[in-house]
Amino acid sequence: MPVSCLPMMIDGTPTLINQLICFDVHQPKRKQSAPSIPTPSTSIFRLPLEVMTIILSHLEENDRPTIARLCRVSKDMFSIAAPILYKSIFVSPLLAYDSRADHTLDRFTATGKEKTNTRKKKLLKNAELVVIDSHHATWCGHKSFKYPNLKTLVLILTINGFGSVLHCNDILEKQCSLVKCLEPKKLVLFGMNMTSITTFEMFGVPPKIFSNVQELTSVAIMDETRPRTVWGGFQEMPKLKKLVWFFHTTHPSMEWQAGSRDFLGLRRNHTPCETDLHALAHFLQTTPNVPTYVVNSGSLHPKYVGETTASKDRIQTKFVEYLKSIMLDGKIGPWCKEGWKEGTSESEKEEKRKEYRSRFDNIHFISMKEYLQNHDWSGEIVPHQAKLWLALAI
Ligand SMILES: [Zn+2]
To answer: What is the pLDDT, as a whole number, of residue 171?
Structure first.
């Protein structure tokens, strides 16, 4: 066995995947008819296709470079491994996250003489999940990709003083040409924090991607910078059926809180926590009245509910009460800290309350575990983090 395979061995025994890679990639090149070479009919290739697919699907979550190596083992292995590898595509200016780092199309030699472009088109048909990282606008300038079977698009946004941007620190108004032609059913916006969620101007994010969205997840991440609060509306999503607000923490023991470094100054008379929660309430009111899930609010820092220390359950309960009071009492917007806007009549208040109550009744506040057990969380959280939450006793 070649020395280069040894680190992948467990207890001195080559793993199944190791055998797959070692026998072919590291063998000196010989003609296929040579009797000493294991062939699909004489090796572990005899495993049923379904079993191979299950094994490789597991690797897809944990070890993509290995699947990429398997693609180069043989034509047969390519036909099993490549569709699995290409189910998820990661486009990132950071090489460590970029798909091309572990499977440059030119490096796939197993299918022989096929042109790279043809092969690329075929492979991209497998893509169901596409993740596009925040990047410089010039970087995506002339590229366009088509993903005909795309289900989920994840955009990783950067938060700056203007809000959430896809094109960081450059030509903000330039729409992303990588994303322009995509129309996902599920859209995950990573980095849609409470203080930046309600802008019409989605810097770098083309409005067209919202047109077919049935499911929108806003992932509120912990970010050091607190951008200016923007009060507006949200993109129209005529097909929206489900909305998720996700307080993202990478570990169950972490407490969620927005940035401490204020970018452009807080609104008058508001504490940072009030600003955050009022912005969230505003977001929930201005989005379509579809079933909505607010996930993991129990992980909020206790200061959000006026406590110094409290259990997850208590934080969630108090958070729901507080959000309800600001949603139903018209205390929405930076001008409304004391309640309804001046001059609002009693009948107008009653009418609005009805509308807000109906919206509030459509919001489900659930724990991370409950969400992971009952919903499709692909693109929202990585599997090894999900496992930590699912392992919790309650
Ligand atoms: Zn772009």
So the answer is: 60
